[in-house]
Amino acid sequence: MQNIDQVFLYMKDEIERQAKNEEKAILDEVKALEDEAYESMRAEAKRDADLKLKQEEEEMSSNASAEISESHIERTKKLIEKRDEYVKAIFEKAHEELVAFTKSADYASFMESKIKKVADDFKDSHSIMYVSAKDLAMKADLVKAFGQDINVEASDDITIGGFIIENKESSLVVDETLDFALNNQKEWFNKNSGLIIR
Asked: Around Cβ 145, how many Cβ atoms within 10 Å?
């Protein structure tokens, strides 16, 4: 009887041992499946987070680029306005000084000297000298400086002073107006002033 009890006890122990081994194998397999599922979920969550981070970074970069571009455009616009104000003020002052010069005692001798320099290029009577309306008062002195007979007429295009001599037959034109000189200086100034805004 004791043998049977021992056999039962042995069988019971063996069954329990096998059950524990199977339980352990099942638990290990479940743990492995859990670990695998966890790693898979973790990798997927990381991919999602990386993708979201990349999208947010791209959006932030795009927004920052747009803000920088808008800021740069606004800054450039303000600089251009400021530059244009400076240039306008400079040339308004130059215009005022040239007008003041035309009212000075030196203006008549300036005109006569300029006319004498170009007179040799106009050796026939088909030339016309254009001056501003206010300079018609100097007509006799201008003709004398030219050294030969020439028609002197007022031109609305000459607002500051100086003269234009034109020969209709030869199509020769000399523009010694202060208006023309000032406009040339504007072009030179715009190219060489260093006030180019990029």
From this structure: 20
